[in-house]
Predict the 3D structure of the following.
Amino acid sequence: MDQAKFIKKIDWEKGDGLVPGIIQDVDTSRVLMLGYMNRESLEKTFSTGKVWFYSRSRQGLWMKGEESKNYLYFKCARCDCDSDVLLISARPAGPTCHLNITSCFDTKQPETGAEIGVLAELAQVIAARKKKMPAESYTTELFQAGSKKICEKIAEEAGEVCQAITKESKQRVVEESVDLVYHLLVGLAEKEVDLEDVLKEVKRRRQ
């Protein structure tokens, strides 16, 4: 990305020098927060690799995590169709919200549905298990057993999904599918294949 051209492309005049910056988790696609950015804060985001904003109340720049250390590590930026809103992909170092929760949009209201990001979150947990190998963890046991055992479990769970589809209830299909997805993600982690690469291939094939 040519950063200078990107910055020039943005319509800074419409918002008196400010544009909304929507922050999205690069791994889960979850929306984490919204802040306002000016030209200088975007330039600092590019140069430092951490996301900066402009505070309208303090009338100055601030970096997310400068006090909490829950930085947002910048990955990429995009404009909307009118070039007056930014979508910033970042990797959070901890809870993004000042209430110490993952997203500023988390509420106590019941969720209306699940997002694909939940799979990415599960993949992150599995990757962490592989790195730390905690005792008394089933995931640790699988990694210790090796790829052959993991593949046996994937095949076993796939058979149980087929059994559920042909002879059991919808709920059993859901439950067995979850077991299959989990073991498949363990297999991907064992082979060091990112879920993002799988999703990219899905997108390529549907075109």
The chain has two domains: 3-92, 117-206. The chain has a mean pLDDT of 92. DSSP finds seven helices and six strands in the chain.
